[in-house]
Amino acid sequence: MRKLRQDAIRQFGTFGILLILGTVGFWVICMILLPQLIMIDYSFRPFLPLREIGGPEDNYTLKNYMVLFTNEFHRIIFIKTIWASVIVTVTALFVCYPISFYLAKVAKGARFSLILVGLIIPYWINELLRIFAWQLILSDAGVLNQFLLTINIIADPINFRAGNGAVIMGMVYAYILFMVFPLYNAMESLDRNQIDAAHDLGASWPRIHWHIVIPHAKPGIAVGCIMTFMLAAGSIAAPQLLGSPSSFWFTQIIYTNFETANWNQGAAYSMVLAGLCLIFIFSMMKIFKVNLRAIAK
Amino acid sequence: MNQYIGQDIEIIDVGMHYEGSPKAALNNINVHIKAGEFFSFLGPSGCGKTTLLRLIAGFLDPTEGQIRIGEKDMCRIGPNKRPTAMIFQNLALFTLMTVSENIAFGLEMRGVSLDKRRKKAEELLELVNLPGVGNKKVSDLSGGQMQRVAIARGLAVEPSVLLLDEPLSALDLKLRQHMRTELRQIQKRTGVTFIYITHDQGEALTMSDRIGVMSADGRIEQIATADNLYNKPNTAFVADFVGANNSFMATVKTANNGHAVVETSFGFLTGINPQQLSSGQQAIAFVRPEVISVLEESKSEENTIKCRVKNISFEGAFVTIFLDVDGKEAFIMRRHNDGTSLFPEIDSEIDVCFGTHNTRLLADGACFHA
Fold it and tell me: Whole-model pTM?
């Protein structure tokens, strides 16, 4: 620790160190910690008219959190959001696993670069625009329906956006990189000879993956799933733009609460969502038997 | 250990040309390796020996020719279906499994029950002199122990052929020499055909029944037992690559009866002419340093050269003497140190001689220059 301090002072000077610590400290405290603490505070206070705030009615209460249990609609949406986010995560995992393996252990040279560029370029475009693109594809007068109508497979346009399908698809597309990169990272460090050795010892391809590749890629799988799940559960753009009234997302309820000035309810639901994500992280770590250090790698 | 059945491997006219590569990695390889043989492919790095091993293992298919194991054509049969097991250069042990799980992996893939797998793993650990480490993690083992685990893992599937890709190269010298003996013993005990590839001639010469020397352009130069390879090299490449050798550029003057007389920059030499070179051809005369001795009385059947002692290097068991002819560094001779004999003094003029039967005349071709 002392050596670290000396090294840092030698490199940046005392003033430099103070500047770095000051700005980072300001950022962490004022931009991250304080707003979160204020949100927590809000979430435990009742929703009151402006003049009653700070008055005798303004006591700490669990009321905002209890709404989740009393309001059936909210509860159903909450559970559905978890469920749909799990589907998004699992789908993304199945889509990204072969891509990552191909990138990490099979593709070489120009082909590798081509796939990588193909994966990254869409991310140079704003997330909203990417989702709008899906809207163009999936809407009643969209590209897909037009195509199916022209080749006479269907007589009337299909409402692709009726259920959760479109939302889930949009999210899988939107978060693919967050699954591909952790998986690729983990697989890349696997010794190709281990795969060959397993093959040589009689393992078929599915078993090579089951016994060698997946155990090795476990930390990557855990990280990819955590990222994708958190992004999906916290997503607002995709359900807003691709969803129908029947595919309401929990974030949309939070959004509506803030919009209608009921910050207390919104804050409480935000905390519930954050808690859910924490539970998901820890259960993933438990399921994949990885610790924080392996994930940080 | 009678569950092992070694099998013949026939490599027939095999050529390998990687897509997009300007030249072939292997050319016209023909070898018949007999069941239960310890066969080594020896060659400088980049000579295609790893490619050859991967062809036999089934990771690659040859672009020309055929590989047969036990009479059966192996074309399009994947590595998981061949009666071979490979020991990788970096061993490629499964780092997330225990030692036992590593060894039993092949059996697990064959659907053998857990009890039998455990038993077999213990047996194999005995065989490789490493009992009682079954529950350890691979990362807790030393280099030599990992080596043995890799061999046990390969033997667990009862292969007919064990393919070894320079597995000793990562070990330190002492351990490497010890493992040579041990590998040889394991091979003898099991009777499995071993195919060993290496660039280390010491390994190849000490362990193998026969050795195939490969040149840098992916051809087989000579297949022979260790002593024949050393004493009777058939090409300039082998003479140069295997062991230390003096080489004299020469032109063939007369040739008859398997012998020939050549002219070198310091006179005429007579030697064995295995390639039947004819008069006028360029040749290289090879003479091992240890067959050269100081001339005491004139013998007509020997080659003699007048030279000057330039330097002497004492190496314990033997002494290397650097000799000059007409001020040009010419060749070396090596004498045993029997503790009593006197060695010539530096700068003294001496006559050295070597038998005509120890002089091999080979066509001037691609040599190995380390």
Answer: 0.81
